[in-house]
Specification:
Length: about 210
Amino acid sequence: MDLRLRLILLSLVALVAVAVWSFPAWRGSFQPPSLRGGFPGLEIDLQDDYLALPSDQREELLEEHGKDPAKALEMARVAISAPELAPRDADWGNPQTDAIALASGEFIQLNALHWGAGDATIYQWADGRRSLQLMNFESARGGDMRIYLSRDFQPLEPAQIGADFLDLGRLKGNIGDQSYLLPAGHNLTVYNSAVIYCRQFDEVITVATLR
């Protein structure tokens, strides 16, 4: 065997030895995202954003993936999307001094992906208007978020919201104080909760019992 062939063979043996020795370091590149801690099917450039989510949210998303992969993938994309700040309401005064509180409640956490914080209060203003005010509000992200008034005291599932809910429109933002004008002459005493509902995924995000 000539010297050149021996050198080629020795080089190949050396490369194989280095590859075997370093296998633990590079084998992760060939594993699916779920085995590396990422989310299956999520775009590569979004994996770091997913990994930045709290661990309980990542676990919930992976659990959802086991039941409905397509829905879970869209939920993951929404979960890592930027928060939506509610625009400042210029048409309302200070409810603490200019209105009477008729009913109020606090938003609650349902699980790692469905949660809210802050207060929901129905106010009667001096000019006769009534509004639902969300104060110190923050909630999980969702797709096509709506705000409802429901007769149920604590509807945790979409079916519990009922068919006779009052739709106040699109949620103005998942962070920030915001106001919703209520219909004039409408009997509001029949409604017992404010519900943040995700229409895209048919999920209740959070709910506040009004008392």
